């Protein structure tokens, strides 16, 4: 028997390497729901900024790039796609240049305004089509969907997060060391938490889940429990 279907929005927020993408994708897939990776959208705008030769700190020109690009973010948990002007950029947006520049680009209020509007449209369409969606990012519970049925804020020790991210980078052919990754993780944590607009922080009504000593299966089980407790899982008659 399947796990049943998700009804409503699950918002998953938290810093880098806490397991948001992995857990969100698995949760959505196991509950017949859609999945939205909002970080991929900020990364795609950043890639376009870099390709245009624009300084990520130049808010005016960054806004111009964000206004003119054609960004399409998919919501299929089995195959989460990101395209820029019709071309798949799923690999390029994970590169170190984008990771280095993404925080300043994400701090530009006009960029956030454009992307939040697009995210809300994707979420509305997913609720209409599939009934449920798992959305992950930094401001989902606080700004994008403040009335989400379930908000979870994932945390983990910085060291554990850096180890996970380094393993992931090395597995996808990007050489990095734990020390360098730890420095990057801490730099982005500080930048994302201290920006003026939509800083990274838990929503007041979010459930905090520390994933430091949980494996992915453990994180997924905790999330399924929370979905269940909130009555967000609908089991089809005879299912
Ligand atoms: N609880 C966990 N235990 C072990 N590895 C994990 C755990 N959560 C995530 N990972 C691994 O860490 C890496 C980063 O996870 P990811 O889901 O991309 O984090 P985030 O989206 O929060 O940045 C991935 O390779 C993932 O498989
Ligand atoms: N909802 C979101 C999602 C991401 N972001 C920004 O986008 C960056 C990349 O997000 P991500 O989720 O892809 O990053 P990782 O944690 O996976 O490395 C973050 O460091 C934030 O600066 C944001 O500002 N708001």
UniProtKB/TrEMBL annotation:
<keyword id="KW-0963">Cytoplasm</keyword>
<feature type="domain" description="Cytidylate kinase">
    <location>
        <begin position="10"/>
        <end position="228"/>
    </location>
</feature>
<keyword id="KW-0547">Nucleotide-binding</keyword>
<keyword id="KW-0418">Kinase</keyword>
<dbReference type="GO" id="GO:0005829">
    <property type="term" value="C:cytosol"/>
</dbReference>
<dbReference type="GO" id="GO:0036431">
    <property type="term" value="F:dCMP kinase activity"/>
</dbReference>
<keyword id="KW-0808">Transferase</keyword>
<feature type="binding site">
    <location>
        <begin position="14"/>
        <end position="22"/>
    </location>
    <ligand>
        <name>ATP</name>
    </ligand>
</feature>
<comment type="similarity">
    <text>Belongs to the cytidylate kinase family. Type 1 subfamily.</text>
</comment>
<dbReference type="GO" id="GO:0006220">
    <property type="term" value="P:pyrimidine nucleotide metabolic process"/>
</dbReference>
<dbReference type="InterPro" id="IPR027417">
    <property type="entry name" value="P-loop_NTPase"/>
</dbReference>
<keyword id="KW-0067">ATP-binding</keyword>
<dbReference type="InterPro" id="IPR003136">
    <property type="entry name" value="Cytidylate_kin"/>
</dbReference>
<dbReference type="Pfam" id="PF02224">
    <property type="entry name" value="Cytidylate_kin"/>
</dbReference>
<dbReference type="GO" id="GO:0015949">
    <property type="term" value="P:nucleobase-containing small molecule interconversion"/>
</dbReference>
<protein>
    <recommendedName>
        <fullName>Cytidylate kinase</fullName>
        <ecNumber>2.7.4.25</ecNumber>
    </recommendedName>
</protein>
<dbReference type="GO" id="GO:0005524">
    <property type="term" value="F:ATP binding"/>
</dbReference>
<dbReference type="InterPro" id="IPR011994">
    <property type="entry name" value="Cytidylate_kinase_dom"/>
</dbReference>
């Amino acid at each position: 028997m399947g796990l049943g279907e998700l009804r409503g929005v699950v918002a998953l927020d938290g810093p880098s390497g806490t397991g948001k993408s992995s857990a969100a994708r698995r949760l959505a897939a196991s509950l017949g729901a859609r999945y939205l990776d909002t970080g991929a959208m900020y990364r795609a705008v950043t890639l376009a900024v870099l390709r245009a030769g624009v300084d990520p700190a130049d808010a005016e020109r960054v806004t111009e790039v964000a206004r003119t690009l054609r960004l399409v973010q998919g919501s299929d948990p089995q195959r989460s796609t990101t395209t820029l002007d019709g071309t798949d950029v799923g690999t390029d947006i994970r590169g170190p240049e984008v990771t280095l520049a993404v925080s300043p680009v994400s701090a530009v209020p006009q960029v956030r305004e454009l992307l939040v509007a697009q995210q809300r449209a994707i979420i509305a369409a997913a609720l209409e089509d599939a009934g449920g969606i798992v959305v992950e990012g930094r401001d989902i519970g606080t700004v994008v969907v403040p009335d989400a049925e379930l908000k979870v804020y994932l945390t983990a020790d910085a060291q554990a997060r850096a180890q996970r991210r380094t393993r992931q980078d090395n597995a996808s052919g990007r050489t990095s060391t734990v020390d360098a990754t730890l420095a990057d993780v801490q730099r982005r944590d500080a930048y994302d938490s201290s920006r003026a607009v939509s800083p990274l922080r838990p929503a007041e009504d979010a459930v905090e889940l520390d994933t430091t000593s949980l494996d992915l299966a453990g994180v997924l089980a905790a999330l399924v429990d929370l979905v269940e407790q909130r009555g967000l899982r609908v089991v089809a008659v005879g299912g």
